Give the backbone structure.
Amino acid sequence: MATEGRLEEVALADICQLLGMGRKTGCLTVTDRSNFGYIFFDQGRVIYATILNRPDRLGELLVRNEVIDRSELSAAMEEQAHRPGRRLGQVLVERGSLSEEALTRFITVQIEEAVYHLLAWEEGAFRFDPGLKPSEEHSLTVSLHPENLLLEGARRVDEWSQIQRRITSLDLVFVADRVPGEGEGIELTDHQRRILALLNGERTVDDLVRDSGLGHFDASKALYGLAQAGLVRKEGRRSLGDDRGGEGDCGRQCLALGDAFYRAGMLEDAEKEYIELLEVEPESQVARSRLALIALRSKRPEVALEHFDALSPPERLRASNLRNRAFALEELGRYDEAIEVLDEAARIHPDNDLLLFRAVVHFKARRSRSALELFERYRHGLEPGSFPPEIFFAYALLAQAATGESEEALRLGREGLSAHPASGAILVNMGVVLEHRGEFDAAEVLYLRAVALEDASPAPQAYKNLGDLAHGRGDRDGALQLWRRALELNPANDVVRRNLERLAAARGG
């Protein structure tokens, strides 16, 4: 279960410390208006971090630190364009332009800088999603102890409060006032010399950070030291929006913002960004796929199908898109069409998990025997020693009961509860089987166990079934109360709504 809150109430450093001490694995998302940051943990250690509006620019960082030259970067980027899925750093290492040690060092610097920057945020929201790992595009990770990051971050936060008194904005422009004389006793650091050489009366602080190859803190600290020594002065400011990018830049920004909103669960904002991306790049397959996923998560399967149908043929046949399209059809009750899509997915991308998805849809299409066959094939294909998920037991026991094997169905349900004792779906479906056997008291016990669970997902159906039992016993007041509760939890349940209308009409008569 995700953990979330406000940075005004809990400091990010405290959250990171708790995640480290608890040896947690997952993604910590931090948002502040349109700014987004992510810190990934693995067993309590930081393995990756990034900030949306502060892209890594590994290639530029390596060039400006004179690790590689511009021609090596261009050649590597050209090779990367012909090798989809390969990271720039990997290509540079394979070409011999960069050592593994250097690559790891610069990736570590980037991750540390992102964490330090996030630790300075005092406002915004955070959310920790357990189990999440970095995407494949961020496959190069490190392993950093959070305690060391927090100590350095705290030191930087203290220094940053001093720096910000002089460098109040990233759009400020500084110029060199003079060069220190030999007799002044002023010794410049390497970082200060690098910044001083870049001051031309046009570069903003943001430009200096980018062009120096230094991190935001190190570049600002160097500039602050030069200003304190009277070697540079503020010339003015230049709007960071003056240098407007083309459509490609707009598209990349929309995609980055859309992805950030989507990961943070802000689906409406994500949808707006992807729609704007389509206005700039009408053929964007990424935008179409993401819009389809948002529609699915927002319970709008018809809209999802429109986006899936607009995908290009190669994208439409991707395993994930085929499965999601089938899910949209399943949500609409178009089970036969969903089965056709899943059969196509099985031919192109066969895997064992797909058998489970197909089995569930076959059952919903009232093809109980073929569903049982698929359930059996799925279980046979599991790794030795692994146990099926609760959805397997919840639907497989119903398929068994539908073929007249109620004893086998209940045995399967009991086996499922031994592995998933808090599964409301298994409890409710076992209760349904018991009801059909005429064992109403036993069914009622299982329904009551289901509504007592912390997991609220099975509760609407459990309350509906309890209402049915009460009505069958002639307890109309009890049925009314239980059905009303079921409808509160699931307003879309038309069966319960009709039951309540009929009961109200009968009592009115």
Remarks:
- The longest strand covers residues 35-42.
